[in-house]
Specification:
Helix content: 55-70%
Radius of gyration: 24 Å
Organism: Sipha flava (yellow sugarcane aphid)
Low-confidence stretches: none
Shape: elongated
GO molecular function: zinc ion binding
Order of helices and strands: HEHEHHHHHH
Subcellular location: Nucleus
Number of helices: 8
Protein name: Zinc finger BED domain-containing protein 4
Keywords: Metal-binding, Nucleus, Zinc, Zinc-finger
């Protein structure tokens, strides 16, 4: 029967060169007393960790296989898809709307007040973070959830002037 375990989650304090990563892998396996018993190591597609595992195999005759993470590869494909012009336009517009609220205490407070008064949970806007998987999806889903509040507040001249309201204008399709 196959068993999978996460044997180490921790901060790597030195530069993440392949030699250091290989040494860290060896140390973790020794600490767990599993050296020679590990059949595979799942990792992202970065060159440094791939090279570290290859060095580990060569230096120790470990039978462990390099197993690039399938989900990481899938996320890389999603990120390529997000580079399509239409996706870039939508993502930039979403980010500008979120920024317009995040950089203004008055707008953030107005949004919270609007949502509470309309029986919605106090949902906060989410900012896009390229290193966080699915953050583009999460920002768009949240904007859809609070869309009516955002549209109402963008029409409110006390929150948005005509000029900055047009910068972040929401269009219907």
């Amino acid at each position: 029967m196959l068993h999978c375990f996460n044997m180490y989650t921790g901060e790597l304090s030195k530069n993440h060169i392949s030699e250091y990563l290989k040494e860290t892998l060896q140390e973790v396996m020794e600490n767990w007393n599993v050296d020679g018993k590990v059949s595979g190591i799942t990792h992202d597609n970065a060159y440094n960790i791939t090279k570290a595992i290859k060095k580990l195999q060569e230096d120790t005759n470990e039978g462990c296989r390099s197993m690039p993470c399938a989900v990481h590869k899938l996320q890389l494909a999603v990120n390529i898809g997000l580079r399509i012009d239409e996706c870039i336009v939508i993502s930039k517009k979403a980010s500008s709307i979120v920024s317009a609220f995040k950089h203004s205490y008055k707008r953030t407070t107005a949004l919270e007040f609007y949502l509470i008064n309309n029986g919605k949970l106090n949902l906060r806007l989410i900012q896009c973070c390229p290193t966080r998987w699915n953050s583009t999806l999460h920002i768009l889903e949240r904007l859809v959830e609070v869309r009516s509040a955002i549209v109402a507040l963008m029409a409110d001249q006390s929150c948005f002037t005509k000029k900055n309201g047009q910068k972040t204008r929401v269009y219907e399709r």
